[in-house]
Structures are given as C-alpha cells and as structure tokens.
C-alpha cells in the first residue's frame, strides 16, 4: 500500500487519542474518516467542564471540524 491508510474513528477513539496526546499525529498520518454524528458528539463533549470536555475541544480544533 502506498500513501496513508484510511481509518474510521468514533467519539471514544478521538477522546482516547487526545488523552494520549496522539490525535494530532493520527490526523497527520492517516486519512481519518468519521460521521456527522461523531462530530456533533465532539461538539457536545467539548461543552463538558471536565477533562473530557478539554479533550473534546482539542479533537474538534485539531480535526478542523
């Protein structure tokens, strides 16, 4: 295979990657696919006043969505 692989990420995976400080690398290295529902969940998660909200905001900002 040449070029980046494609991966599909759900909300939990985005948050986990952000928690491990890896989401930026994954977004740069892979063709990341997700759904509108997942993006909406990240927006909702970013509103939480806890660590998940922080990471939801990070994911949303890094993903450009």
Report on this model:
It comes from Natronolimnobius baerhuensis. This is PIN domain-containing protein. The chain has one domain. α1 (11-19) packs across α4 (51-63) and α3 (36-46) crosses α4 (51-63). The protein is built from four helices and two strands, in the order βααβαα. The mean pLDDT is 80. The longest helix has 13 residues, at 51-63. 22% of the residues are buried. The chain has a two-stranded parallel sheet with strand order 1-2. With 65 residues, it is mainly alpha-helical. The protein is globular.
List keywords for this structure.
65 residues, single chain, mainly alpha
* Helix count, DSSP H or I runs of 4 or more residues: 4
What is the gyration radius calculated from CA atoms?
12 Å
Largest sheet: 2 strands, parallel
Kindly give the count of domains: 1
Q: Residue-averaged pLDDT, rounded?
A: 80
Order of helices and strands: EHHEHH
Uncertain spans = none
Structural class based on helices, strands and sheet pairing: mainly alpha
The helicity comes to 55-70%
Overall shape = globular
Strand order of the largest sheet: 1-2
Task: Tell me what portion of residues adopts beta-strand conformation.
Answer: 5-15%
Quaternary assembly: single chain
Total number of beta strands: 2
Kindly, what is the distance between the CA atoms of the first and last residues, rounded to a whole number of angstroms? 28 Å
Organism: Natronolimnobius baerhuensis
Protein name: PIN domain-containing protein
